[in-house]
Amino acid sequence: MKTVSTLLFIAIFLATGFGINAQKTAETARQTEEKKEESNYGRTPAEYYPFGKFTKPYKRFFLDPLEYRGYGRNLPEPANVESVKIGFLGPIAPTVSVATGGPSHEQNLGRKMLQGAELAIEQANEKGGYAGYRNGKIPYELVVRNDNGLWGASGNEIIHLAYKDDVRAILGTIDGANSHITIRVALKIEIPVMNTGDTDPTFTETAIPWVFRCISDDRQQGYLLVDYLYRKLGLKRVGIIRSSNRYGRFGVREIRDGSRRLGHPIILEMAYNLGIDDFSKIAEHKDELDGKIYGIEPGNDGNRLIQKMIDDDAFGLKGFEVVESSEQGMLAQVARSVKRKEAVVFLGWEPHPMNANFDMTYLSGGDDWFGPDYGGATVYTNVRKGYTSDCPNVGQLLSNLKFSLKMENEIMGAILDDGKEPNDAAAAWLKANPGVLDGWLAGVATIDGQDGLPAVKKHLGL
Predict the structure, then answer these.
(1) Quick one: which of 24, 53, 245, 444 is 20 to 30 A from 5 by CA?
(2) What is d(CA 21, CA 11) in angstroms, rounded to the nearest whole number?
């Protein structure tokens, strides 16, 4: 009997033990699954990870939220509260662009965001307001402040919301620059901020415990679009046409990278043509041009003429900036813009290698400033009086010679860009364009009276 009891006890113990172990196993599996779900950014599929096929990051610091250990955890809830105030911060009045100083489109977005916030407050109050406060029905109240698009204004408005308006949290933010100012102030004053409009991926990567977002960021939206393009639609060859500015460039970056990681690199990326072919069309694209016209060294006549146009508000250019540096500095900026497939307005002239290196459009409409025919000039060959009569053979050669701008651009490029000696650059150009010799040497003889054309071709190895 004793033996039977012992065996029964052991059996019960084993069954209970197995049950406990099973529960622990299930709990461990659940925690593992939750950990797995939290181990990527916004549930991003593994195949979209940068360098995900080759390596893993040492630490994903922004995936591990910081624990708030401040004194606010222990503060009692305030007494005599008539309403729970929620702040709103966004561009709801006509603003200026941080990038260009011109009119901004952001107030249109801000007003829609404000409508959403007002609707949310209305719905929350219809459900009883802040019902958890001592079982009372205290309404939420929206306190609205405008973010006028200047960096310092965001910080000032948050201070007003937190200390003068006594709000408990803040909704809003759109522009990336202003948003980052916002969260830095929020970090110091320890007020919750819910981002409802800014899609900058780095907004929440600051790992501030009381900063949140309720909108997918650019990275997540890019990955979603990539998934839709290749897995939903089954496309194989995709090209990108985007806006001609840094927002367009950064906006498609994740799409471009995600496409490559899935084995479908973007076959073409280009910015849409702004159609600027006249001075009168510059101002309407101020945002895309960042409000800048690039010149060369300070004091140059070309820079001076452009600045005079801006000062006189010719073609509506008031507010543009002439960026002065040097010829090489200007051309370096042009090269960066071309590489990024962005439009750029700069001081150009020919002959110069820039005309062969870049697809340039000379603007019409500037005759009153730069002179007729796009500020063009004619170069003549001068000799002393009677020289062509005294040396008719040389005179014939000089009369025949006609240099095109295209020719001079290419030869200058060989000298300045490729480092060739002038004689070598000229000889190489003639070998590549032998047809010009027919006109240049028509009626021209060698020193011994022979036809000059065959002699020159022989010398050049043609």
Answers:
(1) 24
(2) 15
